[in-house]
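Deliverable D5.2: sample structural annotation.
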Amino acid sequence: MMNKKLLIAVGLVAFSSSICAGPFKINVDSYGDEDGVTEAINQLGMTGTLATSIYKASSFNNIFGSTVIDTNIYTEVTALAGEPIAGVHTALDGTILNGSVGDKNSRFVNPVVYTQASLIRNIDQLNLVDGSGEDFEGFSGNNSKDWFLDFQYYFTGTVSTSSQVFNDGYFNIFFIDKTSGNRVQVARLDVDNSELSNANLQVSGGYTGDFDGDGVADNLTDFQKNFFFDIKTGKTFWELWSESALNTNVVAWAINTNVVPPIPSASQLVLFNKGTADQSDDVLIRQTDLNSSIGFAIPEPSSVALLGMGLLGLGARFGKKHRRTTNPVQ
């Protein structure tokens, strides 16, 4: 979907005076022979991910009102397309898309590179509050040191004539130990709402302790619970989430996609036909590069009650009847 800048927000609204964006740290003290905690971090930086938008429609005009799925998970893309999507394709308007064009909003390259070794979905930067700091505790974005981070995401929504509206899905973050190859999930960020603001689509949600999305808080290890913590409150993201009576978005995040245009053009869409006579399984696909950063927002104590009551437009974490569970990592 995207050349993204992940910003910080709550629900469908920008920060109010009672909401503050606070730096956080990463704690790797309880894993292996790692020895501590990073310096204060403003954002996690990500580059080079292949983001794929799948529209359940058979023609350009039919995308309006249709379901859209945005993901970097290879098995999901292949299942929806009915075949691997790698290779040269002809867009709806006749434009040839081969992955080598300068427009990064019109790419079709091999999704099979979604592997840890390729770092195609790698979180490759810890943007420290003190830009001159060097206390990364063995983190490396290019897999040359002790550990690194990667992610998978799956967003669902609908398409209007002016925007894409996402209201469900997740963004999962994983810790990977270089030596052992062990991969441990350390966060799940749920998607609740989205809004088009100043031509940029903002998708918002919050951290949850329900890592697999089945509606039940998971039995996490201390390493998973303690991995991210907020400096201002002195509490881990998991503690902030678990102490909220309704598990609301007390650790909030949002995505400012910076997609131009928010709705894909005919020159960016390729039709994949599964061969059904009624075209019910047809999908249109746009594949792009994703370069982004992610930050977090922690509410002031006085605003937690408001969040729980939904006065900022946020529902309870488990209030949804159908929360998509996480698929196995591919």
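Annotation notes: The radius of gyration is 20 Å. Residues 24 and 164 are 30 Å apart (CA to CA).
The annotation will be released with the project's public dataset once the embargo ends.
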